Amino acid sequence: MGDEPNRGSIGRRAGERLIDVVSGMLEPEEREVVRGDLAESGEKAIPALRDVFGLVVRRQAPLWREWRPWAILMGLIVPLGMLLSILSRDKAGGSAAYIWLYANNWDWSLLKSAGFWLVLRQSATEVFISYLTLASWSWTAGFVLGSASRRRLVGTNGVLFCVMLLFGGFAGAPMYLSLYRQHLFRVFGDRPFGPPSHVDISALTFYRVIYPLILQMALVAAPALWGMRHGAQSTRLTLRGRRWMWSIAIASLVPMVMQVPGSGIFLIPLRSWAPPFWHVWVLQLVAYWPIAYLIANPISRGWRRIGSAA
Length: 310
Prior knowledge:
Oligomer: single chain
Largest sheet: none
Distance between the termini: 67 Å
Low-confidence stretches: 194-199
């Protein structure tokens, strides 16, 4: 009996969170009015969610009669969501192997070994760089999506992008990587790929299901939504500034496509146009441009405020 109030409280909070997410697709002024009305009426979560969703559909339907929202959905949301899901799942598999090795085979006597610290530093650096790269690509994808979306559709596209990530995380990416491993088996035979412990942890639910989803939420969904917010604000830039931002963003996504497992199969017809190695290295470096942008953006805003005050 004591668990029923707790379950009701958890369900109510989950319903309120869903209402917040769905109402985020409304205009800010209308969103605040709707939330205020719901708070005063005390309506239950499910009827309130149904009412808010119906209002969102009525507001959004006229916008989807044009071609541009559909082009963004099929040309940006679906492919970017699937590519990032595959990369996230792949990087989760590699990093989970290191985590499993240290967490499940820990021995305090290793702390006295200089070789242990050397290997730990190398492993931690490799995992950190892979995580930073994935988060940077996710932010860039969100920036491109936010800058391409109409202001009234930014919230909707953010929700659709998250739905695509869920589909990719649960079904699309595992299916793709499974087919890719089958292809490798047919080509190379029974040959191990990746860290040797990767096969051992595949049977553990946490490392196979839960950890990849945590990584996808933390390093893909959150940075992408953050990038969408900045992309939606990029309309304040000059036309020349927006063109520069778009050029850098698109250039940084090129190595992302090249890093997807199996992408080489599709890029074989383009091998004669393959760029020199140093071009690829520069593109890899450009992938971290969101760090420079996030540092420079508040500084430039501060200088503009000082200039306008003067």
